[in-house]
Design brief:
This protein is α+β, with helices and mostly antiparallel strands. About 30% of the residues lie in helices and about 30% in strands. Strand 1 and strand 2 form a beta hairpin. The radius of gyration is 45 Å and the shape is elongated.
Length: about 160
């Protein structure tokens, strides 16, 4: 038997019809188990109940804090700093770096009619502190823009 004959034989085969008992069992199982036809129930998101409890707790905290009156501090102790307390940070340096100067010309003062030189100075001020507890360096840069008026004398 060659391959062609084998293929023809397999193609001529037809599947057998299922028995009546098998069909009855399948139909009975399908009737009993109708869960596959029901739509799944819609659930609330998993994060919603914890969020509602958190909101309730926050609202309770706001109510308690609004009802609670802060006890006034004695006048003598409230404003007196302790003399033995060491400063938390120590100043290291303050540096002012001039970035730009602009000559805005000579103008005459309206009241005294004297000449004045107007200048605009743009600078950057760096302040540094050190924390003696852990050695941390803190640096703050503050940009500044100053207008300066200088008296002028013509000779």
């Amino acid at each position: 038997m060659n391959d062609h004959d084998l293929e023809n034989l397999l193609a001529s085969l037809a599947p057998a019809r299922p028995s009546a008992a098998l069909e009855q069992r399948v139909n009975r199982d399908l009737e009993q188990d109708l869960r596959w036809a029901l739509r799944p129930e819609r659930r609330s998101p998993r994060w919603l109940p914890p969020m509602l409890w958190t909101t309730l707790g926050a609202a309770a905290a706001v109510v308690v804090m609004s009802l609670m009156q802060a006890a006034p501090e004695p006048a003598g102790l409230a404003s007196v700093p302790s003399a033995s307390a060491a400063p938390s940070v120590l100043p290291v340096s303050t540096i002012r770096e001039v970035v730009d100067t602009q000559d805005q010309g000579i103008r005459y003062n309206e009241t005294s009619r004297l000449p004045e030189q107007h200048m605009k100075i743009v600078s950057l001020e760096r302040r540094a502190w050190i924390d003696p507890r852990d050695g941390a360096h803190i640096t703050v840069e503050v940009p500044r823009e100053d207008s300066v008026v200088l008296p002028v004398s013509f000779q």
